[in-house]
Amino acid sequence: MHVDTIYDRPSNTTTEIWTLPKVLGERYSADKDVVVLTSGRTGGVAEDIAYILKQMRRAIVVGERTEGGALDLQKLRIGQSNFFLTVPVSRSLGPLGGGGQTWEGSGVLPCVGTPAEQALEKALAILTLRRALPGVVLRLQKALQDYYTLVDRVPGLLHHLASMDYSAVVSEEDLVTKLNAGLQAVSEDPRLLVRATGPKESSSRPETGPNDPPEATPEVPKEEAARRALVDSVFQVSVLPGNVGYLRFDRFADASVLRAL
């Protein structure tokens, strides 16, 4: 693959850089994640490597925008003085970027922007998320098979999940957005939603101690008519055309009440 073209001004020559036809050592595997950490002081050949790996979608660049320097610099002495002039003498023509665009002057924009001091911590969090991706996809496939009511659309959803490209996913928000867009497009069902579930939020109510009295439990009426009235106040049930049952509830009853009803 043609990854770069370097122009050298002193010799007025152009050199093309290609990947090797075969791997000389053990293959690292395209399934493993590569993260490149950058800062505002990343320059020269390091910028070129980061740019190439990003454009090839082979690495996730995490950190700051690079300095946008030059591949090679030449220091020229001005006359017999102690003053020197530093001049770029070679440049990357960047065939991967298209249109002759390169990282020189503008720098390499990271996939995930974060201060350089926090780049390693952010990279480790991304790797943790990406290691969990296969398990997340498997659990989602199983949930669709077990619970999704539009069963005729399940095979298409399972195929879509298995064939999706997750290479650009670097956060839970990315994953949720990608899954919802893809699954809703395949199922044509806007109700099919994936949400990220974090740690359970702590209750705002004070914790009860061992000597505190238990909370009062609402009593369930014993009379049949009163129970039916309670059910009607909690649930609204309708049978729609096509033998479709519609159940609506505007509030959650206490668990003990639901169990009795």
Give a verbal description of the structure:
This protein is of the alpha/beta class. Among the domains are: 2-21 and 29-113, 2-enoyl-CoA Hydratase, Chain A, domain 1; 120-187. Helices cover 32% and strands 19% of the residues. It contains six helices and nine strands, in the order βββαββββααααββα. It has helices at residues 45-55, 119-147, 154-163, 172-187, 224-234, 255-260; strands spanning 2-8, 13-18, 35-38, 60-63, 72-77, 84-92, 112-113, 235-240, 244-249. The strands form three sheets. The protein has a four-stranded antiparallel beta sheet. The protein has a three-stranded parallel beta sheet with strand order 3-4-7, sandwiched between helices. The chain has a two-stranded antiparallel ribbon with strand order 8-9. α2 (119-147) runs antiparallel to α3 (154-163). The longest helix has 29 residues, at 119-147. The radius of gyration is 30 Å and the shape is elongated.
Q: CATH superfamily of the domain at 2-21 and 29-113, please?
A: 2-enoyl-CoA Hydratase, Chain A, domain 1
Taken as a percent bin, the fraction of beta residues is 15-25%
**Poorly predicted runs of 5 or more residues:** 200-210, 213-217
Order of helices and strands: EEEHEEEEHHHHEEH
Which radius of gyration do the C-alpha atoms yield?
A: 30 Å
CATH class of the domain at 2-21 and 29-113: Alpha Beta
Q: How many beta-strand segments? A: 9
Beginning-to-end CA distance, first to last residue: 68 Å
Largest sheet, order of strands side by side?
2-1-6-5
Q: Remind me, CATH topology of the domain at 2-21 and 29-113?
A: 2-enoyl-CoA Hydratase, Chain A, domain 1
- The CATH architecture assignment of the domain at 2-21 and 29-113 turns out to be Alpha-Beta Complex
Mean pLDDT, to the nearest integer, reads 83
Main pleated sheet: 4 strands, antiparallel
Give the count of helical stretches: 6
What structural category arises from helix and sheet content? alpha/beta
